[in-house]
Amino acid sequence: MKSQELFVALKLLAYGRKPWIYEEIAQSLKIGVASLHRSVKALAYADLFNIEYMCINCAAFEEFLLHGVKYVFPAKPGAIVRGMPTAHSAPAFKSIFKASTQDFYVWPHNNFDNKGVSVEPLYSSAPEASLNDPKLYSLLACIDILRIGKAREKVIAINLLKKIFTEYDQRP
Asked: Residue range 135-145: average pLDDT?
């Protein structure tokens, strides 16, 4: 699996079960339509996406995120840089965690004034795609917590992910 495929799956999860078109999703992710098609086919091959119903296979995708993502897409904190907050430093977790300077995580990005420990984003266009999609941003932050977080942070991220999967499954 490539990081783009996980990025696409997270976007489709964030989008919900409403009908979608490839061009719209590709544009929102800042990727090409052909790349999106390839990613969806790869997700279907891995049983993470159901082509017939055009939706995420929640059981398989949840299992992969909770137990495999940290091994397939490991992250190592880097230098202090300016960037967009991620992991437990992201806006979705602002009321839960009080991040100190040494554990404030960011995706490197020159258009932000936040300084923190750099974490390479799951996919290169993740910061730009997150600017217009708060739910995708929250999902990507959860994934970063699973990649670099401590036990307490991971528990909270897992609970948020489970809530999102439950909401996704309940939609028509």
From this structure: 96
pTM of the predicted model as reported, rounded to 2 decimal places:
0.93
- Separation between Cα atoms, residue 55 and residue 146, nearest integer Å: 23
**19-66 pLDDT tens trace:** 999 999 999 999 999 999 999 999 999 999 999 999 999 999 999 999
Question: What's the rounded Cα separation, in Å, for the pair 85 and 105?
Answer: 6
> What residue type is 21 in one-letter code?
I
- Confirm if 139 and 10 have CB atoms less than 8 A apart: yes
DSSP per residue over 12-50, as a string? Answer: HHHH-SS---HHHHHHHHTS-HHHHHHHHHHHHHTTSEE
Cross-strand bridge partners of residue 105? 117
Query: Quick check: 77 and 150 in contact, CB under 8 A?
Result: no
* Domain spans in the chain, listed from the N-terminal domain onward: 3-72, 80-170
DSSP character at residue 88: G
Residue that is written with structure tokens 């996919």 in the block = 123
